[in-house]
Design a protein that fits this description.
four-stranded mixed β-sheet; 1 helix; globular
């Protein structure tokens, strides 16, 4: 099964630096044809992302997600 990739936008809580288009995947599995360096974060399901956006809480205390797309 190919892992689902999500592209997220948001910002880091320590310095408010914004980011966009960072790739995350639900499982600790790099999609075929990609390198581990292409993936920003492993372990976020679509529901985890939606919950993080709705709550406004930082993910692992490091960054806020403001939007995403599959």
């Amino acid at each position: 099964m190919t892992p689902t990739l999500f592209s997220i936008d948001g910002y880091f809580i320590d310095d408010q630096t914004e980011f966009s288009g960072y790739l995350v995947t639900e499982y600790d599995d790099t999609p075929q044809g990609m390198d581990d360096d292409n993936i920003f974060f492993y372990g976020l399901s679509e529901q985890d992302i939606v919950d993080a956006i709705e709550s406004g809480e930082p993910v692992v205390g490091e960054f806020i997600i403001t939007s995403y797309k599959i």
